[in-house]
Amino acid sequence: MTLPNMLQIAPLLSACRAGTLTPTDIVREVAARVDAYAAKDPAVWISRVPMERLLARAAELERLPAADLPLYGIPFAVKDNIDVAGLPTTAACPAFAYEPRESAEVIKRLEAAGAIVIGKTNLDQFATGLVGMRSPYGQPHCVFNADYVSGGSSSGSAVAVAAGLVSFSLGTDTAGSGRVPAAFNNIVGLKPSRGVLSTYGLVPACESLDCISVFAGSTTDAWEVERVAGAADARAPFSRTFSPRSLPLTTFRFGVLSAEDRFFDGNEANAVLYAQAIKRLEQLGGTPVELDFAPLKETAALLYSGPFVVERLAAIKDFYHSHRKDMDPTVGTIIDGAANYTATDVFDGIYRQHALQQIAQCMWDDFDVMLLPTAPRIVTKQEVIEQPIAANSLLGAYTNFVNLLDMAACAVPAGFAPDGLPFGVTFIAPAFTDEDLAALAGRFHEALGEAIGAARTEKPDISAKLEISSSGRVLLAVVGAHLKGFPLHWQLEKENAVLRETTRTAPYYRLFALPDATPPKPGLVREAGFTGAGLEVEVYELDAAGFGRFVASVPQPMSIGRITLADGKEVCGFLCSEAVARSGTDITATGGWRSYMQKK
C-alpha cells in the first residue's frame, strides 16, 4: 500500500486493521521520507531512533492485535525537551544534554496505545521563543518558503507533521509554541488545558504554565492523541484531573477583535483572511461578539515583560549559573532579565494575574468561545536576525495570555494569502472544554475546504461530527419544553422525530428554571465536580435535514452541544448559557423538568 502524503491516523489504522499495511511498512516509509526531507531542511530533527530499533518496535506491535490499540503503528515525533528513553534530551542546548532514565509519562501512554516514536525534534532553546531560530542544531523553515521562519518554539515538531514525516507530534506551549508553528505550516495545533497532559519528564520553561501540546493534520487526530495521552499524575506538580465542560457546537456566540484591536503589522491580506474566518464561523451557526482585548493584552505582557521571566530562570537555575556562556545569546539575554525583579515583584505579578483571571472569567458571560488570529503575520528569518526580540514579541500578540488565564486553545488553518503563505486562527475557551473546542475548530477547518500540510493534497479527516445513530440519523436529547406533552414538542413532531429512549443524563449536570421564559423552560449546564442523580431526558432521532432545520430555530441563550447520558453515551442536546441559567432557580434536586412542573 502506498502511504498518503499526510499520514492521518484513521486511514493508517484502517489499513493496518485490514491487513494491507503493517507497522514495518510504516516505519520503512517514514524513515525514507525523513532522509529525503533532510535535503530540503536538515534542521528538523535533533536525534532519531535507529532503524534497527524502529523495526524491532514494529515487530513487537505485529505480535499484538491491531484492533486493541487506538494508535497501532502510528508514527510520531517528540520535541526535544520531553524525555524519551534511549535518546538524549538536549532542550536544544548541547551543554545541558542528558540521558533520561525513563520516558515521560505522555510518551509511555502513547507507546502503550501502539504509537511509534521516530525521533526528537528541534526547538528554540529551553522552549524560549516563538520563531524557531534559537537553536545550535539549525533553524527549521516554513514548509512553504525557506526564507520564512517555521515558528517556535516547537519548530521541528510542526514541520515534521506538515511535511508528512509523521502522523502527529508533541510540542510544548507556554506562550504559543504549540499554536504559532501550526499556523505557519498549515496544520492543527491543540493546546490542552493546563495539567491535563502530565509534564513529568518535561524540561520546564515556566512550570506553572507549561502544557504539552499536539500537532496533527486534523483536530480529530489531535484530540485522539490528547485523549490517549491524558491522565492525572501526582509526579507532575500542576497535574489536574480532566473534568470535561461542554461547549455549544451549532448555535453559539464567539468573541472577536474589534476593528481597532485588529493588529496585523501592516499585512492587509491577513486582515482580510481574519474577516473571512469570522464570516465562515457565522455560517456555521455562530454570532460574533466584540471582546475587550485590553485585559488579555495586559496579561500577555506579564509573561516576557514582567516578573514571570523569573520562572524561566528557576527552571534551569543551576545550569544557568554554571553554563551561561553555553546558552543561545538571545535566550540567555531573556533569562538575564530575571535579575531585574524582586520576590515582591513576582508576588505582585501573581496577584495581578489572578485579578486578570477574574476579569477574563466574566468574558465568558458574553460569548462561548474566542476566535483570534494565531499571529499577526509570519516573519522572515532575516527579520529575526536583525530584531530577534521584537520579531518574537510580534508573534505572541494573540497567544501569550492563554495559559496565564487558564484557557484551552486549538489553532487551525484559515487560508492562504496571495503570496502563498498560510494564515491561521485560534479557537480559545475555558479550561476543560478541550474536546468540544477541538470539535468546533474541526467544523471550521472542514468548512474552509483547504487541503493540509505542505503537499496540500488531502483534506483534514474530520470524523468528530454531531453524534449519529447507527441508521445515520442524528440523536437529540431534550430536557424541557420539548418533552412529550410540553408546549414546544410540536417542533419535534413537525420534523418526524422518533422517540428512542427516556433516560437520564450523567451525574454532573444541573438544571435551572429560567426566569421570565415564555413558555416556561429550563436551562441545563454541566458542572465539573458535581455529582447528582442525573436528570430526565428524552432522546429523539431525526434525519440530518430535519435536525438542521430544528437547530436553526433554537434561540439564545439556548444552544445545541454534546450531552453525556447515564450510560456514558454522548448525544446532541440542549445546553444553556451558564450565566443565564444560574440567574434562575436551581431545580436539579427535582430530577427533571417534568417532575418540577408536576410539583408546581
Question: What can you tell me about this protein's structure?
Answer:
It comes from Acetobacter aceti. Keywords: Hydrolase. Pfam families: AH_C, Amidase. GO terms for molecular function: hydrolase activity. With about 600 residues, this protein is of the alpha+beta class. The protein contains 20 helices and 19 strands. The protein has helices spanning about 10-20, 25-35, 50-60, 105-110, 155-160, 180-185, 220-230, 270-285, 295-305, 310-315, 315-325, 330-335, 345-365, 380-385, 390-395, 435-450, 490-495, 545-550, 580, 595-600, and strands at about 45-50, 75-80, 115-120, 170-175, 190, 210-215, 250-255, 285-290, 370-375, 405-415, 420-430, 475-480, 500-505, 510-515, 520-525, 535-540, 560-565, 570-575, 585. The strands form 3 sheets. It has an 11-stranded mixed β-sheet, sandwiched between helices. A 5-stranded mixed β-sheet has the order 13-16-12-18-17. It has a 3-stranded antiparallel β-sheet with strand order 15-14-19. The N and C termini lie far apart (about 65 Å). Mean pLDDT is about 95; it is low at about 465-470.
